[in-house]
């Protein structure tokens, strides 16, 4: 893709460099494949920039991200590029000390979001993947107003990528970059089941 | 994403395992972002399976894939997971010995495709990324009939991911899995230029 020339020069008083380095909220939504996969692909670029990366998986999944997780952990520990911190639901958030709520996914999702909020305030990472975060939003487990305000007022230069189907309309409005992954054809339509190396 | 149950059990005489391990042709097309990025994200899964990976970049680009390339090369050389061979246009295909055609992109694209064809016949890789391959197809530099027949008759278990806008309709018809990346909003619409860590 050529770098191109923006069709409009905004009248916002910022220099090109300031505009260029503006932190982005990015949403990958839609019924097709590639939402999370593209987010982890972007993480490779963030790693290459030397940025600290925080991954937060908001939906329990046994094997779906094993390839991405192993690869990004290895990259993060390589001593080249940025670091990678990988947090996931289901195995318990790393910051969740009590065990009584293990099956309370709503509480886990809220704990996860609270941690993201603290990390954004502390500028812990430069690149965040909130994987499948649209689901706890859609299910009302995490308050959309709080998320929008936290993203809007986050300090510094922190990019945040949010993935998942059915992104709330107000999140889409608030995002800088939105890609809708549409399903044109999927092997499961003709009876093909998921397979290693492709779906996980 | 849950693994799910296919809505139809095909009457093709194959066992579930045979169907499950069927090699796929995958197309990422559409005007939105994430086509190549999702392909490189998939490559992380292929790497995790220990599969040899071949990346072929069909359009010259100075810096657009530096993050992905550095990350995948490091992974490929880590001694864990699969190997990674990365071929790109513009710097000359590694197999292009003569130098007189350096500026003949059409010839380079054809040379690239010939190499892919040889690799498919030899089962050199298990996972191919033909990045931005739709463009030489659209420009008539590489013959679509040849590509479709080569993909259809490829031996063994070789997955092939093809990315780029405006995938030819017959390629879409021939593919097992097609995702259309639609642009909902892009920062360049409001004057934002590309930035490091995001676009490259």
UniProtKB/TrEMBL annotation, chains A, B:
GO terms for biological process: cobalamin biosynthetic process. Keywords: Transferase. CDD domains: CobA_ACA. InterPro entries: CblAdoTrfase_CobA, P-loop_NTPase. GO terms for molecular function: ATP binding; corrinoid adenosyltransferase activity. It comes from the Bacteria. This is Cob(I)alamin adenosyltransferase. It comes from Thermopolyspora flexuosa.
